[in-house]
Design a protein that fits this description.
By secondary structure, the protein is an alpha+beta fold. It is 54% helix and 14% strand. It contains 13 helices and nine strands. The structure holds flavin-adenine dinucleotide (FAD). The site of flavin-adenine dinucleotide (FAD) has 22 residues, from strand 1, strand 3 and helix 13.
């Protein structure tokens, strides 16, 4: 067990600087263009792959850090550069988290590298859980997976909604119902390998923010995947379903829920990066901008906003680092992962809104980046568990009761 410390080690400081330099030199200058184009920024992700920031080695290195802090530190810097491009670079990580969370070691070795490809030929991963009628309520999935014993294949049918990298990914990880009578306890995750017939992209969504990140429906029409694509394997699934039938509850979390729990501090770090970008920009602006013959920061009304902004940002970072450390060292007790994501996302929305206020009319225009940061921040109170769902998770953890 590693002691918790907010002092980063040499490696972490180096990674922080390395990612910051990339965010400053490559990501931020490209942010406006890709937000306007509302397209996946392939050239930037390819550049990230060339330097080793997009790829399986970076993820393994970050995830392998015993303190848990490397990933949130790197992610904060990347998203400080831009959240849309940041999500294009990090989106495959959700699929790999889904695979490593439930997959056998053989499945992890086979599929995780395929979610990233190589530095010369990148690939993408997508994690497909949500559906039009099952977002927060993931127990309500309609997508079905039926086992065909004759061919040892699973046949998948359904439509997934709002999927990051949906349809453009090489590897899609799909959560489907295998035993509808068991609802959330009757679900399993499948890898759909590259080029599998029957999987296609439905509508691409036009969004409020993180517009460089691709979000689309994924349509599964009689998609047949080999038995080995069931994550965790058939024996484990059969045992889990049998236990669920016996006890009415298997005691195991739904596959989607355990993935989201593990990734929450990292998602919080994404929101934190946006908030810090907005705070720094607003601070500089407030020192430069004059009104009534003095810099606007000389007014307590503006200075106190900035004081609140940095206090909330630092509080969010501490919650994120604590959660990331706990995830690696002893586990959560009071849903600390949810706390960190909840706090950072609400802070990010508030801080970016205050940044617009500090920039006044300029802040409201697309000439300045703060309006984009505000649009980008908003997604964090919605995806990977809305702010309401985070509070539900925390309430249940602290009370031990099924708060509804
Ligand atoms: C840009 C983007 C990218 C995404 N990427 C992915 C992805 O890669 N993979 C994936 O699987 N999904 C993805 N999603 C889906 C996302 O996770 C869902 O949109 C989210 O979980 C919310 O679900 P919903 O939209 O159905 O809202 P709903 O569940 O319908 O919620 C609507 C409102 O009701 C509230 N609410 C619902 N239930 C309760 C309750 N019990 N108590 C209190 N309030 C409640 C919610 O908090 C929310 O405010 C993405 C979404 C977006 C917008």
């Amino acid at each position: 067990m590693t002691e918790f410390s907010a002092a980063l080690n040499e490696d972490q400081l180096q990674i922080q600087k390395w990612v910051h330099d990339f965010a400053e030199g490559v990501v931020r200058p490209a942010a406006h263009e890709w937000d306007e184009r509302e397209e996946f920024p392939y050239p930037i992700v390819e550049e990230a792959a060339q330097i080793g920031l997009y790829g399986v080695d970076f993820m393994l290195n970050a995830i392998g850090d015993p303190s848990g802090l490397t990933l949130p530190v790197a992610v904060e810097e990347l998203f400080w550069g831009d959240a849309g491009i940041g999500m294009a670079i990090m989106g495959s990580g959700l699929a790999t988290a889904g695979i490593s969370g439930i997959g056998t070691p053989e499945q992890v070795v086979e599929w995780v590298p395929q979610c990233y490809g190589t530095a010369d030929k990148i690939a993408l991963g997508a994690f497909c859980v949500s559906e039009a009628d099952a977002g927060s309520d993931v127990s309500n999935l309609r997508t079905r997976a039926v086992y065909d014993e004759a061919t040892d294949e699973w046949v998948l049918n359904g439509t997934k909604a709002w999927i990051t990298n949906g349809g453009i990914a090489d590897v899609h990880v799909v959560v489907a119902s295998v035993a509808p009578d068991l609802r959330g306890r009757g679900q399993a995750s499948f890898v759909v390998p590259p080029g599998t017939p029957g999987l296609s992209q439905g509508q691409k969504y036009l969004k409020h923010g993180i517009r460089a990140s691709h979000t689309a429906e994924v349509v599964l029409d009689d998609v047949r995947v080999p038995g080995r694509c069931l994550l965790g394997g058939k024996e484990r699934l059969d045992a889990k379903l049998a236990r669920a039938r016996e006890r009415g509850s298997s005691g195991e979390k739904q596959p989607a829920m355990s993935t989201f729990e593990a990734t929450r501090p990292t998602v919080g770090a994404q929101a934190l990066g946006i908030a810090r970008a907005a705070y720094e920009y607003a601070l500089d602006y407030a020192k430069e901008r004059h009104a009534f013959g003095r810099p606007i920061i000389m007014n307590q009304a503006i200075a106190f906003k900035l004081a609140n902004m940095i206090t909330e940002i630092d509080a969010s970072r501490l919650l994120i680092w604590r959660a990331a450390w706990l995830a690696r060292n002893g586990g959560y007790k009071n849903a600390e992962g949810s706390m960190s994501k909840y706090k950072a996302s609400e802070v990010s929305v508030r801080v970016t809104e205050e940044a617009i206020q500090i920039l006044g009319g300029y802040g409201y225009t697309r000439e300045y980046p703060v309006e984009r940061w505000h649009r980008d921040a908003k997604i964090y109170t919605i995806f990977e568990g809305t702010s309401e769902i985070q509070r539900l998770v925390i309430s249940r953890a602290i009370s031990g009761m099924r708060v509804e």
